[in-house]
Amino acid sequence: MSIFGLMWASLFRKRTRTLLTLLSLMIAFLLFMLLQAISNAFASSGSFNLASIDRLISTPKYSIIDSLPINQQQQMLNIEGVEAVTHANWFGGNYQERRNFFPKYPVDPYAYFDMYSELVISKEELDAFAQTRRGAVVAASLAERFGWKLGDIIPIQGDIYSMQNGSRLWEFELVGTFTARVGESEAPLFLFQYEYFTEAVADYSKNQVGWWTIRLSDTDRAAEIANQIDLLFENSQDPTRTATEDEFSRQFASQLGDMGFITAMIMSAVFFTIVLLTGNTMSQALRERIPELAVLKTVGFTDTLVSILVLGESVLLCVVGGVLGILLAFAMQDVLGSTLGGFIGDFEYSATLIASALILAIVIGIVIGGIPALEARRLTIVDALRER
Amino acid sequence: MSEIVNCRDLEKTFIKGKETVEVLTGINLTVDEGDFLALMGPSGSGKTTLLNLIGGLDHPTAGIVSVSGIDLNGLSSSALARWRAVNVGFIFQFYNLLPVLNAQRNVELPLLLTKLSRSQRTKNAATALEIVGLSDRAKHKPGELSGGQQQRVAIARALVADPALLLCDEPTGDLDRGTADEILELLELLNRDHGKTIIIVTHDPKAANHAQRTLYMDKGKLVEEATA
Fold first, then answer.
1. For residue A346, what are the domain limits?
2. Quick one: angle between helices A259-288 and A351-378, nearest 10?
3. Would you state the pLDDT for residue A299?
4. Which of A196, A220, A255 corresponds to the end of one domain?
5. Average pLDDT, stretch B202-223?
6. Average pLDDT value for chain B
């Protein structure tokens, strides 16, 4: 046995209580990891990084749930410095069940893959996509996830768009897959023909797009061209808000709320509660162990060593809870990453985030264990043994 | 024989609210190496307080406690803790074992403060358990042992650092007669065969019969001495 062994054994004095405390810490740190990873993904904008991509995004000015008319495309192309324009819609919808979520966009096949050259698709499959009315192409990882093969019919239950006949069941034929260029992140996208979409969709949604993607011939003029586009539609029924992809991603985050602030507020509430609950548990554990601590002092443990033992237990408890939370977060990474990957940038846990979680665990352990450790230090043997 | 414990003009008072309670007054006591001394007296007579002062668990209000030539009053709290680890073994009425540790590890506890290797600590703890006749219960936790067995583990823990002085506060107070006799015989053996100086606080005259010398206390004073 070692001092650490003594700490570990003492931690499990009340096994059920310790396990429940560990569970609450684990959930708190799981939340911390998930929310911070989402917040970080928004902050960094992941795949929408202008540093390597010469693109603008133009969305409805007031809300991303509004739409824009398809006829804006030609007017944008007339602006000097605009090289290409394509569009997409947020289709929503579910495949089989809600948890099987992935982003689905109706797009112009050739224009879309021309715009997003980081997406790699064979010429044959792209041609098949353009020529098949109900054709769809998907990220290879998505096809692998659901075991889809070329020729499969993939039913999608619409939740935003219904068809002209009132049905919400959209069926697509898988005609190809694409991958991301080496070094690029592969979003789990499901792309289908805009032409089919706008023909089949209910009248009120025809000839509408969700957002524009604009490629520039001169990236140095990005801000100026973005301004020109917005000025062009400023007095129309469909004003736009145009920004670089990087800025767009941040605006998207901003429309959902200040993710950083929301994350901080949620985590503050969670950890405040954890500190109170775990602090109470530690204090209770200390009260129950007063005679035992007195025995340790009797056999020669100094006041400092006893207080280190109590503080160490608290830190150990929080670190174990934190590590379990981190491990659980990693276990959930694949599912969440593929679900959220279409909304945000790369959903991943950075080394900094893991280090932050561990440091936070240690700090919480010190905060929780500080007062009990001080009390343990002040404990007089004679008084403590009298409590037996 | 040379003296191991020397108390001179020892006084101890406690303050309870506005009241000052004199627990020990003018105690003068000498215990020689190898002695087996019993302290008897009614409840509140100051027996345990005297034992605590000799063991360095508490400080006297006045007077001197010297053990093996060391004036305990001159030691700081941490120095006193280190001194206790090496020089004194304590045995309590309620055993005071750590319920989360098995017998072997409870015994090993005082050795965590030493520089002994892990294997040496394990070996010494096993030896101490062998002396008290509990080798076969080494892996049992206190909750899985009888009262007598728990007290034997407590004795092994007191012995493991090989202190010269064993201080026992009502070591048989929570045991039935038969088990109490076994514990007292074990203490006698430790005194006789291992040369341990033992001071035992007890209410039980039969327990005191195992000692070579019995001191009676009343109202904080030593009032009588009897020799076996």
1. 3-44+258-386
2. 30
3. 87
4. A255
5. 85
6. 87
